[in-house]
Design a protein that fits this description.
heterodimer; A: 274 residues; mainly alpha; MetI-like fold; globular; B: 287 residues; 13 helices; 2 strands
Chain lengths: 274, 287
């Protein structure tokens, strides 16, 4: 029998991985490089790879009044994490322990919401928020993001609770514990890592989301992606500033990949696997 | 048995809050959308009234709608096919153990977590003809001196490349999950029989991957129809209407021409497509 590494297919696949890595990494390096250029340096043609790095663009990001935009993004994302857990945990637990058609219908419902065109939701939400005078408020964006995050969180927590053995819970019920007591003292203490993974996903989805934030806000409640897109629509391009903003917008993605990459696969593909 | 039944009983307080919230933020807007699509309402004009199916007639009889539908189909076909091929190759390549696999896997997944706005901006920056690494430097060096995003055909190519960069990992994750369910004994048996790597792929891996591929294709097709941010930040649908997909067309109708009624009708058409695809999918995924 031949050794695996001697097979030509192995070499082909390894080569492919190498090329793909270049494809993934080079754009990010280019973006990072752009963030450390001066505006003058960024306009050089052809572009230079070697230059004296400056923090000019990052200084503009953090001293140039964009702090409130980052604040909005963080507030909206954290509120989504809190609401998704608060509303989602009991619902997911109940759905997981329930039997019958309700559960199956709900699963289909969650899948439909995940696949529904955001564009179909943004028009009625815009019309509604306009009527009640909530346009350009953080609350409007929080609500809009919850339409994606709450079903996702429920789905993920439900499938986690499904895998837990129920004998301890049954025993606790027989000993007179309430449903809530079981959830609080038996189930939640062993769900920590899952809750962290779900929180991270909800945070990143909310942080990355553009369409809702873009349509529902104009200035006061603007989020980071809406700001970047807004600047990209202007004529007077400040490439280093936009690169620095983009690099700052990547922080949550990197944190999640570094800390929880293996635990979020199910969340990223919710509904498609299993 | 009674014990078990008691175990199944739940106070409604567990489900009620989530269901109430979901109903008011998802169900109510969906009904409101249908209502809006039957009304004449242009934000910049004072009067609004019930107009029956006028919006649908206007939308379905307009050339720009069908042009956008065709553009959407071109975008959908290209990005779904490209991510399917690349995702399969990646899944097969990373389903073996080799040093550094964890790092490679993390890097493959990374683009999926990056805001699409940033992905689009990054590619716009790379492809810029005056100052971009690809557009002003590498493409001219190989004789392709073209302003990718200003050329109607190449603009679509650019968007597909950026979308592939951003979304291939999704296909990869679905396919590698399916691959990990394939018993290794199948490959051992094939190897003893002297099968080549290519034959193993063609006769073992591929047939077993088909169901997961179908799921991935449907998911990605819906995603492609819904794609807005990436296209918006790269071309806003331009040059002209070369990259104007349905979501961009709908956005233009509702939020730059301020015709909410007609925008709602376009959205309903998109929702109908999503429902069709989801039903197709649910037969496979939920069973």
């Amino acid at each position: 029998m031949r050794k695996t590494w001697l097979r030509p297919g192995t070499w082909l696949l390894t080569g492919f991985i190498g090329v793909y890595m270049v494809f993934v990494v080079v754009p990010l390096l280019w973006l990072a490089l752009g963030a450390f250029k001066t505006r003058f340096e960024s306009l050089r043609s052809p572009p230079t790879l070697l230059f004296t790095p400056t923090f000019e663009a990052f200084q503009k990001v953090f001293a140039g009044g964009f702090g409130s935009v980052f604040g909005n993004s963080v507030t909206i994302a954290l509120a989504n994490v809190a609401l998704s857990l608060l509303l989602g945990i009991p619902a997911a637990y109940a759905l997981s322990r329930m039997r019958g058609p309700a559960r199956k219908n709900f699963a289909f419902w969650v899948l439909s919401i995940r696949l529904a065109p955001a564009f179909g939701l943004v028009i009625p939400l815009y019309a509604f928020m306009r009527t009640v005078g909530l346009l350009d408020t953080i609350g409007a964006v929080i609500i809009a993001h919850l339409t994606i995050n709450l079903p996702l969180a429920i789905w993920l927590m439900m499938s986690y609770f499904d895998d837990l053995p129920t004998d301890i819970e049954e025993a606790a019920i027989i000993d007179g514990a309430s449903r809530f007591g079981v959830l609080r003292w038996v189930v939640l203490p062993i769900s920590g890592p899952m809750l962290i993974a779900v929180s991270m996903l909800v945070f990143v989805f909310s942080w990355n989301e553009f369409l809702f934030a873009f349509i529902l806000t104009s200035s006061d409640a603007q989020t980071v992606p809406a700001l970047i897109a807004g600047l990209a629509g202007t004529m007077n391009f400040d490439w280093p500033l936009m690169s620095a903003l983009s690099v700052s917008a990547l922080v949550p993605a990197f944190v999640v990949v570094l800390l929880a990459q293996r635990h979020i696969t199910e969340g990223l593909t919710a509904g498609a696997i299993k | 048995m009674r014990r078990f039944q008691r175990f199944l009983k739940f106070p409604s307080t567990f489900l009620a809050p989530a269901i109430l919230v979901l109903a008011s933020i998802v169900l109510f807007p969906t009904i409101y959308l249908l209502y809006l699509s039957l009304r004449h309402w242009v934000i910049t004009r004072p009067n609004q009234y019930f107009s029956g199916f006028a919006n649908y007639r206007l939308v379905l009889s307009s050339g720009s709608f069908w042009d956008s539908a065709f553009t959407t189909l071109v975008f959908l076909g290209s990005t779904v096919l490209a991510t399917l091929v690349l995702g399969t190759a990646l899944a097969v390549a990373l389903n073996r153990s080799f040093p550094g696999r964890g790092v490679v896997r993390a890097l493959v997944v990374l683009p999926l977590l990056i805001p699409p706005i940033v992905a689009g901006f990054t590619w716009r920056f790379l492809l810029n003809r005056e100052i971009g690494m690809l557009g002003s430097w590498m493409l001219p060096a190989i004789g392709l001196d073209a302003s990718m995003l200003a050329n109607p055909d190449l603009a679509m190519v650019s968007i597909v490349i950026a979308d592939v960069w951003s979304r291939t990992s999704f296909m990869f994750l679905i396919l590698i999950a399916a691959l990990q369910g394939v018993p290794g004994s199948l490959y051992e048996a094939a190897r003893i029989d002297g099968a080549s790597t290519w034959q193993e792929f063609l006769f073992i891996t591929l047939p077993l991957l088909v169901p997961a591929m179908l799921v991935g294709v449907i998911f990605r097709a819906i995603e492609a129809v819904n794609t807005f941010d990436l296209i918006y930040v790269m071309t806003q649908g331009g040059p002209g209407t070369a990259t104007q997909t349905l979501s961009i067309y709908g956005w233009r109708t509702a939020f730059t021409s301020f015709d909410i009624g007609r925008g709602a009708a376009i959205a309903v058409v998109m929702v109908v497509f999503a429902i069709f695809a989801t039903t197709l999918l649910s037969r496979r995924v939920l069973r």
